[in-house]
Amino acid sequence: MIEAVKKVVLAYSGGLDTSVILRWLQETYRCEVVTFTADLGQGEELEPARKKAEMFGVREIFIDDLREEFVRDFVFPMFRANALYEGAYLLGTSIARPLIAKRQIEIARRVGADAVAHGATGKGNDQVRFELSYYALAPDIKVIAPWREWDLTSRTRLLDYAERHQIPIAKDRRGEAPFSIDANLLHVSAEGKVLEDPWVEPEEFVFGRTVAPEAAPDAPEYVEIGFERGDPVAIDGEPLSPAQLLQRLNGLGGKHGIGRLDLVENRFVGMKSRGVYETPGGTILQAAHRGIESLTLDRGAAHLKDELMPRYAELVYNGLWFSPEREMLQALVDNSQRHVEGVARLKLYKGSARVVGRRSPRSLYSRAHVTFEDDAVYNQRDAEGFIKLNALRLRLAARRG
Fold first, then answer.
1. What does the DSSP 8-state code read for residue 351?
2. Which CATH superfamily includes the segment(s) 7-67+94-179?
3. 63-91: per-residue pLDDT in tens?
């Protein structure tokens, strides 16, 4: 039995899935639908989404530019933690979901909606990310997840529904409905269709933000990234806003074929999936951040951060951005960033971003201590006692036999 709903805020991209969902909500729930489209830097014109919504008779249409908030309040805090899921994924899709959900709830309160809806499938992670965020921010909100309710259980049925209701269907360059793509200022991901076979190498048409490393310039390019309190603030000495800075790095990384990833990952819901990701600016940024941390973080602090990072990354991946444990870890991470200040110099060349220089006014690096030349600050004989004390337990164990 369909629960009564008066007004629902739909996270609306204007694509095939959410356009079908919009019409389905109107037919099934007989309620007013409010659409919300977030500009997260996906690089697409968003006005067509407005026109499509108007075509369906939607009266309240929200298209919000959230690029600066996205990078400042979500991407940068995550990058302070150097978060990588399963040692590889920079969490480009994961980190966008809590912001979309947050804005949906804000709109729902503003327009008096009693429900929110999303277009995530019942097989994926995004349904979890959206809904955990909804409930964390509005415990009593009604959530509608059409993919778990309707009988449009295949791509074919979805396309048939779209054709019956005269919903425009986008086409990719192969003349077919596009495979699943998610894009924002941090990354582009592609899943499904030919990419479902993890043995088959992705064809070049899958990539849209980076050139193939083989086709990148034959000469390297250097870039200097300035940091304050763990966040990047300037490129080559030019101060930039968070979104501007990430956009600039995307351009540089894309030009040099940096940030491609072909990954089989473990979804939160239990299955493995294959994703192809492009994160050019983020790949450069993480390398630069670790470069500055190598100068400015105490060994104990740095190693503790690295121990906690997989847990932090898993929380983001699983949709627990608004959880108390993520906020606790964030407080620890942010405390560690007080002295993470300076400039990292990177060499960009054919798919790689390597730190080749770093400097900081808060550096813990002491050339006087590490030099191979004569020094007056380190007594090498002190190392003998240090080693013997650390070896004591090993010697006792060896004598036991």
1. T
2. HUPs (3.40.50.620)
3. 999 999 999 999 999 999 999 999 999 99
